[in-house]
Design brief:
Layout: E1 2-3, H1 5-10, E2 18-22, E3 27-30, E4 46-48, H2 51-55, E5 71-74, H3 78-91, E6 95-98, E7 112-115, E8 122-125, E9 129-133, H4 138-145, E10 150-151, H5 163-169, E11 185-192, E12 197-201, H6 206-212, E13 220-228, E14 230-231, E15 235-243, H7 246-259, E16 264-271, E17 278-288, H8 296-299, E18 311-316, H9 317-321, H10 323-333, E19 345-350, H11 351-361, H12 367-370, E20 375-382, E21 398-405, H13 415-434, E22 438-439, H14 449-456, H15 460-470
Parallel strand pairs: 5-7, 6-7
Antiparallel strand pairs: 1-4, 2-3, 4-5, 8-9, 9-13, 10-14, 11-12, 11-13, 15-17, 15-18, 16-17, 16-20, 19-21, 19-22, 20-21
Bound molecules: flavin-adenine dinucleotide (FAD).
C-alpha cells in the first residue's frame, strides 16, 4: 500500500491508512489506533509500507546484510524529505537515504528508507558546472555532457551510482592526479538530521559541507549538488600491459606515475591463463583529440611489460567511461549479478607499504576470493589532491586503493560463505592497518566502536560536534554502524 497525499487528505483507505509510528513497538500505526500519536505529515510523494514492496529494499549489492525497512519514502520533493526527517527526529526513528544501493554491507538500511531515485533531475549544465538532484546518477549526467564536450573530472569505474551515494563515500577513480569526486563539488543542498534544509559550500556553512562530503550519511541527506565539469577529449586510448610478476608491474607503475603523461593508471589482477595465481594487467589510459593522436612509442618507452601480450583499446571517451557499466550489464544478463553475494574488501594503503602489503596478501588469495565475476584492483592516487577531511586516508605522497571485488559463485545467500569472507576481510583489514591502511567504507567489514575511534582519529571531535549540531537525535544512517 502506497499512501500519497491525496489518500491522506481524503481519508481513502482510512481503515488501513498509516497515521504514525510506535517507536517502542517498532511498527507503523493504523489511523484507527492512532488517536494520540503525532500524525504523519501530508506528503506529495508516497510512503510505501506493504511487505512485498518493502522486500525489494531489504538488502543491497552485497546481499550479505538484510533488514527490511518499516517504510520507504518515495519523495516527490525535498519538502517531503524534510517533513519525514523531522517526523523521524521527533519520534527517534532511524532514517537513511538509498541511492542505487551499490554499497555492500547494509549501509542504506534503516527503519525509514528514503528512495532518492524519485528525485533524479539534472537541472542545468553549463561550461563549468552541473546542478543535479542527488538521486540522479553520474551515468545520467555523462550521457548529457559528453555530447557537449564536457565531463566530471573524476569518474568512478562504474557510473550507475547516485550523486548522493558517491558524495557520501568519496568517489575514487583511476584518474590518479585529480583527487576524489568530493573534491570537485561547488555546493550542496542538504536536509540535516534535524530536518532543516541547508545550502552549504566552501564559503557557506563550511562545517556541514566538509562533514557531509565523504561523511557516510551521518550529518545530513544530500538532496542536490553543484558539481564541476571540465572539457572531455573525444577519445580514450587504453593500453593494457601484462606482467608475469608484480615487481616489474610496480616498477612500471611508479615510473608512469612520476612521468605523469597518462590520464588514468590502474592495475587489475585477473586469474592467470598460464596456471594458478593471478596476473597483473596495468591499464594506462590517454584521452586524446584525433587531430593530435598521442605518440604511443614515447608513452610506453622503457617499460618492462610483456610487449607481445599488450592489448590496446581505442574507443570514444564515453565508451571508455561506461566500460564497467557495460561489464555489469553483461553479468546481470548472465545471471551473475542480482542476488549474488559481493563481500567486497576495500582499503587505502600508503605508497611506502603498498608493495609489501600486496606481496604478503596476494599469495594467500584463492579463486574463491575473487569468484567468476570478480577481480582485484589497485588505484594509485596523489594524496595532495584530496581536500575533504571526512574521507579518512593515509598520509603519504602517494596512496593506493586496493579492492578485492569478490563475487559468490552462484546467486543466493550462503551463511558459511558469508562467514568465511567476513573473516577474510577482517584478517586483511587488520594487516592493512598495521601497514598504515584505512578502510574505504564502501565494502563489507564488521567494525567495532574501537575501530571507528581509530578510523576517525583526529576527525573524531569534529564528527561528534557535527553530530551534536546537525543530527541531534542521532537518527541518520545507522547501517554503517558508527
Ligand atoms: C560495480 C561497482 C563499481 C564501483 N566502483 C567504484 C569506484 O570506482 N570508485 C568508488 O569510489 N566507488 C565505487 N563503487 C562503490 C560506490 O561508490 C559506493 O558503493 C556508493 O555509495 C554507491 O552509490 P549508491 O548510489 O549505490 O549509494 P548507496 O549504496 O545507495 O548508499 C551508500 C551510502 O550512502 C548513503 N547515501 C545514499 N544517498 C545519500 C544521500 N543523498 N545523502 C546522504 N547519504 C546518502 C546511504 O545511506 C548509504 O549509507 C562501486 C560500486 C559498484 C557496485
Amino acid at each position: 500500500m502506497a499512501l500519497n497525499r491525496r489518500q491522506f487528505l481524503s481519508g481513502v483507505a482510512a481503515a488501513t491508512a498509516i497515521a504514525g509510528f510506535d517507536p517502542i513497538g517498532g511498527r507503523w500505526i493504523p489511523v484507527a489506533e492512532a488517536k494520540k500519536n503525532k500524525p504523519i505529515p501530508p506528503l506529495e510523494g508516497e510512503l510505501v509500507t506493504d511487505p512485498s514492496s518493502l522486500e525489494a529494499y531489504s538488502t543491497d549489492a552485497g546481499n550479505i546484510v538484510y533488514g527490511t525497512p518499516n517504510a520507504v519514502l518515495r519523495p516527490a520533493s525535498v519538502a517531503d524529505i524534510q517533513k519525514m526527517v523531522r517526523y523521524c527526529a521527533d519520534n527517534r526513528i532511524c532514517v537513511a537515504a538509498r541511492g542505487q544501493a551499490h554499497s555492500t554491507h547494509g549501509h542504506s538500511l534503516a527503519t525509514l528508507m528514503i528512495d532518492m531515485g524519485t528525485l533524479d533531475a539534472i537541472h542545468s549544465i553549463d561550461a563549468g558546472e552541473a546542478d543535479v538532484d542527488a538521486g540522479a546518477t553520474w551515468k545520467d549526467l555523462l550521457h548529457l555532457t559528453v555530447p557537449q564536450g564536457l565531463t566530471p573530472p573524476v569518474l568512478t569505474g562504474f557510473t550507475g551510482l547516485s550523486f548522493g551515494g558517491t558524495l557520501s563515500m568519496g568517489g575514487i577513480s583511476s584518474s590518479f592526479d585529480r583527487g576524489a569526486q568530493i573534491d570537485h563539488v561547488y555546493e550542496l543542498e542538504v536536509v540535516t538530521g534535524n530536518g532543516d534544509i541547508v545550502r552549504c559550500s566552501d564559503t557557506k556553512n563550511r562545517d556541514l559541507f566538509n562533514g557531509v562530503l565523504g561523511g557516510l550519511g551521518q550529518y545530513g541527506i544530500i538532496t542536490r549538488a553543484v558539481v564541476e565539469l571540465v572539457p572531455a577529449l573525444p577519445r580514450a586510448l587504453n593500453f593494457q600491459l601484462i606482467y608475469l610478476d608484480d615487481q616489474s608491474m610496480f616498477r612500471d607503475l611508479w615510473k608512469l606515475l612520476r612521468r605523469n603523461e597518462f590520464d588514468d593508471v590502474f592495475n587489475m589482477w585477473v586469474p592467470s591463463p598460464m596456471g594458478p595465481g593471478f596476473m597483473s594487467v596495468l591499464n594506462a589510459v590517454k584521452y586524446y583529440d584525433p587531430a593530435q593522436p598521442p605518440n604511443q612509442a614515447h608513452l610506453l618507452r622503457d617499460l618492462e611489460h610483456v610487449a607481445p601480450m599488450m592489448q590496446v583499446a581505442d574507443t570514444t571517451f564515453l565508451e571508455y567511461a561506461l566500460r564497467v557499466d557495460a561489464a555489469v550489464d553483461g553479468f546481470k544478463a548472465a545471471g551473475m549479478w542480482d542476488d549474488v553475494m559481493h563481500p567486497w574488501f576495500d582499503v587505502f594503503l600508503p605508497g611506502r607499504t603498498v608493495e609489501h602489503y600486496v606481496r604478503e596478501v596476494m599469495p594467500t588469495l584463492t579463486p574463491e576470493d575473487v569468484g567468476e565475476a570478480g577481480f582485484f584492483l589497485l588505484f594509485p592516487q596523489r594524496r595532495s589532491r584530496f581536500k575533504r577531511p571526512s574521507l579518512r586516508l593515509p598520509q603519504d605522497e602517494w596512496i593506493f586503493l586496493f579492492d578485492i571485488l569478490t563475487a559468490a559463485p552462484t546467486p543466493g545467500y550462503d551463511a558459511a560463505y558469508a562467514d568465511r569472507m567476513m573473516r577474510r576481510n577482517r584478517r586483511l583489514f587488520d594487516k592493512a592497518r598495521l601497514h598504515g591502511g584505512y578502510r574505504y567504507p564502501i565494502g563489507s567489514l564488521d567494525f567495532a566502536r574501537v575501530d571507528w575511534v581509530h578510523h576517525l582519529g583526529p576527525q573524531l571531535p569534529e564528527h561528534n560536534k557535527l553530530k551534536a549540531r546537525y543530527d541531534k537525535k542521532k537518527i541518520l544512517t545507522p547501517g554503517i554502524d558508527i
